[in-house]
């Protein structure tokens, strides 16, 4: 039987796993690394290197090295996230023809789907060389809060890479699957995921084979990098002002400080005190390079990072509130992301939920392992050699509604509603003799439509001319099991109706995806 791989396509790092001989394996690169930087570096001939080698090229090819593509994929050019990224990354983000951000490297423009496809193809090739056979099928994970555009774009990236994507699965669901949680039980599980740059917490309801994400909350700018930064600031405060200014001016010195801080942070997960040496960042009286020496205790570190740790629990409160649960209702907690190795995080999670976290699966690998388990059972079902995989139920990541008079947004479907779902509300005309109505569909949590993301609009014509408030229009939202949204408006008087199917508005067309497929290109 062929193999299907599970891929955790991360913001900073990705992992690929395969279920073989009854157990999941995590696949290493030729250097032995089991996590692979989600980094693509393009040379002047546009040849691409991916993973650990690409990360090393970042230093001398900053404009041609693309990282954090996951922050941009499936977003709109003018979205807040893209604007933030533009200020932070050295590579060039340019507008694409569908209002989507694209990446310009030297004289070529890439879609985000193509960038991610390079990472996916690299992971596919690692699996193929390990298994010594071609791999065609995969399950790819995405954050639970990803909207339809982001999911579709990730799926397209898989197709471009030459993979048949069996399913896009939520990361927390994959993590829970890796622990085989729930098995014939009915329980709530929390997945606490603190990575290098982002934090998410999801509450799952597991009933036997049914995994439902009941709520999810997160902070896309809270992660291990912030812990490093707090420590760097603490170390820098020990320098004279002139030395501080010199370090700030030198990217290489700043990087050395960050690396030293990260090293100390890791050490403090198992020791009480860490010595810190930052080589060659200072100058002595005669202008010769000098090292910076310091030390930090675990108690000091805990004090420094306490506000960050606290922030993660404010997000946990939000997720529990949305699920209408208390920490004591949670039967198990699963830790995901390298930062959850940190002692202060483990202790804080245990005290918040009142129970120790699940142990045994590596927090960097748990999502890919769950994806591999799901991939293997889906392929088994496809080939008729196994039972259908666990049925995974999803929820709407954000509220959906329509614009109403006064710039307000009237919600029809609340966030975290299980799909498939249908919801109808009746509206009336707002001016006398109105013969048509424009239905504008928005996604987001704000009461004002301008602060939400517009998904699309359509017009229902042919209304009976009448005084305002007399003509009744029923607006229905239907979301199917794949998360595709259909909106219909119907004049209740005459039965006239108009509708819109909300596809990925910044996505690629099927023929564009086909043209981008690596198999159809010459490298
Ligand atoms: P991820 O994005 O999941 O790969 O998470 C990477 C983050 O985890 C980085 O900020 C690392 O510094 C951090 N990390 C990895 N191992 C440890 C450890 N043993 N103790 C503390 N932090 C760690």
Give the topology:
Blueprint: E1 4-8, E2 13-20, E3 23-26, E4 36-37, E5 40-42, E6 48-50, H1 52-57, E7 65-66, H2 80-88, E8 92-95, E9 101-105, E10 108-111, H3 112-131, E11 137-142, H4 148-160, E12 164-170, H5 171-178, E13 186-194, E14 199-207, E15 210-219, H6 224-236, H7 241-249, H8 251-267, E16 273-283, E17 289-297, H9 298-323, E18 330-336, H10 343-353, H11 366-383, E19 391-393, E20 400-404, E21 408-413, E22 421-428, E23 437-443, E24 453-460, E25 472-479, E26 485-491, E27 497-502, H12 510-516
Parallel strand pairs: 1-11, 11-12, 13-18, 15-19
Antiparallel strand pairs: 1-2, 2-3, 2-4, 5-6, 5-7, 8-9, 9-10, 13-14, 14-15, 16-17, 20-21, 20-23, 22-25, 23-24, 25-26, 26-27
Helix pairs in contact: 3-4, 5-11, 6-8, 6-9
The chain binds adenosine monophosphate.
Adenosine monophosphate (AMP) binds near residues 196 and 338.
If you had to describe this structure to a student in words, what would you say it looks like?
This protein is an alpha+beta fold and 523 residues long. It has 3 domains: 303 residues, Nucleotidyltransferase, domain 5 (2-Layer Sandwich), CATH 3.30.420.40; 80 residues, Actin, Chain A, domain 4, CATH 3.90.640; 106 residues, Substrate Binding Domain Of DNAk, Chain A, domain 1, CATH 2.60.34.10. The chain has 12 helices and 27 strands. The strands form 7 sheets. Strands 1, 2, 3, 4, 11 and 12 form a 6-stranded mixed beta sheet that branches. A 5-stranded mixed beta sheet has the order 18-13-14-15-19, with helices on both faces. It has a 4-stranded antiparallel beta sheet with strand order 21-20-23-24, with no helix packed on it. Strand 13 and strand 14 form a beta hairpin. Helix 6 runs antiparallel to helix 9. The longest helix has 26 residues. The model has no long low-confidence stretch (mean pLDDT 91). Bound molecules: adenosine monophosphate. Adenosine monophosphate binds next to helix 8.
């Amino acid at each position: 039987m062929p193999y299907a791989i599970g891929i955790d396509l991360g913001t900073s790092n990705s992992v690929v796993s395969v279920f073989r001989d009854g157990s999941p394996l995590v696949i290493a690169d030729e250097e032995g690394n089991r996590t692979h930087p989600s980094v693509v570096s393009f040379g002047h001939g546009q040849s691409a290197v991916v993973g650990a080698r690409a990360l090393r090229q970042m230093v001398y090819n900053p404009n041609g090295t693309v990282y954090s593509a996951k922050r941009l994929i499936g977003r709109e050019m003018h979205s807040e996230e893209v604007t933030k990224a533009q200020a932070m990354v050295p590579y060039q983000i340019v507008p694409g023809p569908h209002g989507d951000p694209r990446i310009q490297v030297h004289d070529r423009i890439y879609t985000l789907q193509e960038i991610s496809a390079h990472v996916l193809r690299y992971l596919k090739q690692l699996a193929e060389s390990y298994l010594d056979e071609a791999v065609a099928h995969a399950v790819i994970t995405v954050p639970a809060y990803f909207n339809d555009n982001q999911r579709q774009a990730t799926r397209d990236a898989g197709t471009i890479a030459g993979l048949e994507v069996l399913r896009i699965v939520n990361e927390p669901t994959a993590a829970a699957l890796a622990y085989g949680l729930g098995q014939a039980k009915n329980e709530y599980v929390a997945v606490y995921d603190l990575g290098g740059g982002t934090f998410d917490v999801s509450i799952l309801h597991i009933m036997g084979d049914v995994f439902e994400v009941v709520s999810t909350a997160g902070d896309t700018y809270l992660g291990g990098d912030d812990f490093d930064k707090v420590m760097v600031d603490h170390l820098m405060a020990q320098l004279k002002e002139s030395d501080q200014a010199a370090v700030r001016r030198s990217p290489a010195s700043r990087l050395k400080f960050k690396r030293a801080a990260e090293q100390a942070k890791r050490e403090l997960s198992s020791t009480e005190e860490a010595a810190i040496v930052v080589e060659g960042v200072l100058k002595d009286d005669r202008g010769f390079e000098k090292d910076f020496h310091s030390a930090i205790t675990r108690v000091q570190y805990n004090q420094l990072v306490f506000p960050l740790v606290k922030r993660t629990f404010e997000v946990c409160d939000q997720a529990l509130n949305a699920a209408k649960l208390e920490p004591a209702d949670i039967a198990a907690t699963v830790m995901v992301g390298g930062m959850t190795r940190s002692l202060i995080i483990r202790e804080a999670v245990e005290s918040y939920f009142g129970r120790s976290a699940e142990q045994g699966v590596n927090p960097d690998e748990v999502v890919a392992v769950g994806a591999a388990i799901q991939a293997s059972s889906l392929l088994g079902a496809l080939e008729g050699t196994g039972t259908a995989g666990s049925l995974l139920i999803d929820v709407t990541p954000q509220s959906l509604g329509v614009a109403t008079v006064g710039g307000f947004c009237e919600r029809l479907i609340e966030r975290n509603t299980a799909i498939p779902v249908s919801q109808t509300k009746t509206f009336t005309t707002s001016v006398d003799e109105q013969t048509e109505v424009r239905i504008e569909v928005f996604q987001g949590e704000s009461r004002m439509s301008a602060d939400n993301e517009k998904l699309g609009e359509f017009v229902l014509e042919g209304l009976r001319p009448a005084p305002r408030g007399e003509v009744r229009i029923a607006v229905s939202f239907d979301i199917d099991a794949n998360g595709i949204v259909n909106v219909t408006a119907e004049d209740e008087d005459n039965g006239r109706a108009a509708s819109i199917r909300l596809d990925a508005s910044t996505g690629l067309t099927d023929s564009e995806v086909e043209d981008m497929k690596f198999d159809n290109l010459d490298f």
